[in-house]
Amino acid sequence: MVSLSKKLEPKENSIPKYLVISQSLSSIAPLGSVSAYLTFALASSLASTGLASIVGVFVYLLWVIIGYRYSKVIASTGGTYEFARQASGETIGSIAGWLYWISYAIYLPSVTTYLVGIVLPTVINFQSIYLSIIEVTIPIILTLLMISGIKPPLFYSLISSTIEVILIIILGFKVLIIKGFSLEPFFITVPQYDFWSGALAVAFTLAGGGASFFLGYEAKGKGKTIGSSYLIAFVIASIAVIFASYYEIAAAGYSNLGVTNLLNITEFPGFYISEKFMGFTFAFIIFIFTVNSLLGSAISAYVALSRLTYTLVSKNMLKSILTVFIFFLIFNVLGSITGQLQLIYYFTTEISLITLFASHSIVSAVYPFFIRKISKISFIDILLAISSSGIMMYGIYSNLIPIQLTSIISIGVILFVAAIVIIYRYISKSKY
């Protein structure tokens, strides 16, 4: 056990750049995002998702610039926690870090439950008992992969992500050859609120790229490698998501009604469109690599979360991995026992989204303090911080309204984390 724990400890300058890019790109999960989270965007902005996806990319670009500037300077296992801590102290850093921890920890059951509850039954007629078994088995398999070391999971993600992007391009060109081009997706044909909800859903689709922030200590080239890898993965994923949103709208007939009908038929439009335009064989390949994509995304989140746990809780990587595993397993066992996989998917996705935006809004808001410590602060820096934190807070608002059970729980989680951190910091200071 001691030798295994030592083997898993983060090793400085040990991960090459291409694997860091893999961590960023696979955490976004191009094919999985097109299948899962892009469906959220389509449900809101319908045929306007073409424009909403472009807006969503530029919305998230504000955070990308901030994350890039942080990551070039701060190379650690703590990622966003360390960003906020160095900018504005331990209390703010801990609040941002724990909110990020919760977002990623809940993302794990979200993405795997989507796989088991929606993707698999769309293609294979599993009995519910087998779905329940798979739901519980996934956290165990991923944990065993994590215990094998950092490089095997990243190699797996690299191969999967590369093939995913190629499949998206092939399918998209086939759809457009048949359906032709239209400017309809670049006009707003839905209410403004629905349009912006779609844009923010696309922004969330791209949010996983920050998983590479937590490899700062281990990356060869440290901050320089993390920053450039993050940008490369963001550009690749942005192009893939915009292109996918366009061809999915094209496949639906370039109309709001067509998109609505598509989503009424399936919650896995990638497979449906593939089968319709390319035949079952290609659709089955899409299915296989969507499964790989979702698993790759979960692995990247697990890698990031284990390192954040290592920083926040225990300087022992094995214990950190097992801590994440227990949290992960509890949610998936709950889904397995109740059989309410789709409900748990929507529930965990909403909470993960809100806590992610909350953490990002904090890290964005304290960005000027970070810049002031490393160079002369400019008006652009302040404007960037205000814009990014404002958009992230709007993301929180748009997911809280209308108030539902997930809204109340999310607010409770944010307030609970803030209260616990503040109380802990107060007690710690009182001892000295």
From TrEMBL:
It comes from Acidianus brierleyi. Keywords: Membrane, Transmembrane, Transmembrane helix. The keyword Plastid does not apply. The keyword Amino-acid biosynthesis does not apply. Gene3D superfamilies: Amino acid/polyamine transporter I. This is APC family permease. The chain crosses the membrane at residues 20-40, 46-66, 98-123, 129-147, 154-175, 195-217, 229-247, 277-305, 317-337, 343-370, 377-397, 403-427.
